[in-house]
Specification:
It is a single chain. The protein has one domain. The protein is built from 10 helices and 2 strands, in the order H-H-H-H-H-E-E-H-H-H-H-H. A two-stranded antiparallel sheet has the order 1-2. Strand 1 and strand 2 form a beta hairpin.
């Protein structure tokens, strides 16, 4: 028994020894003569496990706990960004809707213009034919042409009353201007997101601008359509009350005052420009708007009046057989109605009136921007002075040097009625 145990131990030891030699032989390959042995340096640890955020947090019982990371600031930021993006998406949709409706109302203007003119001229022709049929063997056919002429003139009168009330050319101009302003608002929202961190005040300001635009340029035709013949002409207002918001700016002291790009010279320049904007530019477009409005009122009344008189004249053709007056009223009245309709809607007088109101609103807005900055006593809360001067020059269609020269002219001691030059060159 002992002999067997010794033999098995010997076999095991010899086999393990042979295996070790075989492994060593496979690992240690003899290098050729003259070759140098290459020793690989030990690679240093490039990072620690803790730096990957994988450090274990164990409780007293040995269980693993996920490390807590504060996310409140990120959530607030994401929420504000999501709100502004939602507003921008709604604004882009409004711009698309106004563009589509503007094209539709522009088509209305062309279709009604040509349709009403065709009806008036056709009715005038029928009135002339019916006058020729009052005598001779064709007299029995008189009633057909006379009745057709009366129906056409009556239809033209009703259509002109409706079209003159809604003014399709003016509606189209409203939608075109609204489309531009909605797109401008969308760009301003995206610029806010690109330049700085959004705040709650940005969301409130964007919502106020949306509501002001919707009020200035309503989409529905009835009953929220803007008054086409107002009693008083006022510039269009599509912006909310301008309020200056505190900005994080580095205060530079100039003459003992925090500058933010502002100086006494710049304030005097802006006061002079404000004076000319109010007394010359805005006043000019309000005055022109009143003139065009009176012309439009006259045309809007004259067109249906001529068509109605033509309908009465066509209905009286043949009553006294020898009287030329009904024929004259019917034919000439229809021709005059077509001429007036062409001047009013072909010339798009309503569109011109809306254009003047919008131009007046443009200059009114520049005045309020200047007022809001100058009213702010804390200069660091104003818009940057150099940036504001550049924006004002661009909106007035002037270079910076031209704006400076004009500011010296507008700040002079001339009376308001002696000022000859206008501030804006763009409109």
């Amino acid at each position: 028994m002992a002999t067997l145990q010794l033999g098995s131990n010997y076999l095991l030891s010899s086999s393990s020894f042979s295996n070790q030699r075989r492994i060593c032989a496979s690992l240690h390959v003899p290098s050729p003569l003259g070759a140098k042995t290459v020793s690989l340096p030990k690679l240093p640890a490039l990072f620690k496990v803790e730096e990957l955020g994988l450090k274990e947090h164990t409780n007293s019982d040995g269980s693993y706990t996920q490390p807590h990371q504060p996310m409140t600031a990120d959530k607030d930021h994401d929420r504000l960004v999501a709100k502004l993006l939602a507003i921008a998406e709604a604004v882009a949709d409004r711009a698309e809707m106004h563009a589509i409706i503007g094209d539709q109302r522009n088509n209305w203007n062309h279709l009604f213009l040509h349709s009403i003119n065709s009806i008036n001229l056709t009715a005038s022709l029928m009135a002339g034919i019916s006058a020729a049929l009052t005598v001779g063997e064709a007299a029995p056919h008189l009633s057909a042409f006379k009745l057709s002429s009366v129906v056409l003139f009556t239809a033209a009168t009703g259509m002109m009353l409706i079209v003159n009330k809604i003014q399709p050319s003016q509606l189209a101009e409203e939608q075109r201007n609204a489309t531009r302003l909605w797109k401008q608002l969308e760009r301003s929202i995206h610029n806010t997101l690109a330049l700085r961190e959004p705040a709650e005040s940005d969301i409130e300001e964007a919502l106020e601008k949306v509501l002001a635009l919707e009020k200035a340029y309503p989409l529905p035709l009835l009953p929220e359509m803007l008054e086409k013949f107002p009693e008083t002409v006022e510039p269009t207002r599509w912006w909310p009350k301008i309020q200056r918001r505190g900005q994080e700016t580095k205060k530079a002291c100039v003459n003992g005052m925090a500058s933010n790009g502002w100086s006494k010279e710049l304030e005097e320049e802006m006061l002079g420009i404000h004076r000319v904007l109010k007394t010359k530019d805005e006043e000019q477009y309000v005055r022109l708007g009143k003139l065009v409005l009176n012309i439009n009122k006259t045309l809007a009344i004259s067109g249906p009046l001529f068509a109605g008189m033509a309908a009465i004249g066509a209905g009286l053709i043949g009553s006294p057989v020898d009287s030329p007056l009904p024929v004259l009223v019917g034919v000439v009245g229809g021709a005059l109605a077509a001429v007036v309709n062409t001047v009013e809607h072909g010339g798009q007088v309503g569109m011109v009136f809306e254009l003047f109101r919008n131009c007046g609103g443009f200059y009114r807005r520049l005045q309020e921007e200047i007022e809001s900055n100058l009213r702010e006593s804390e200069v660091e809360k104003r818009e940057d002075g150099e940036l504001f001067r550049m924006k004002m020059a661009l909106q007035l269609g002037r270079s910076l040097s031209e704006l400076k020269d004009f500011a010296s002219y507008s700040s002079s001691s001339l009376q308001d009625e002696d000022l000859k030059e206008f501030a804006g060159k763009l409109f």
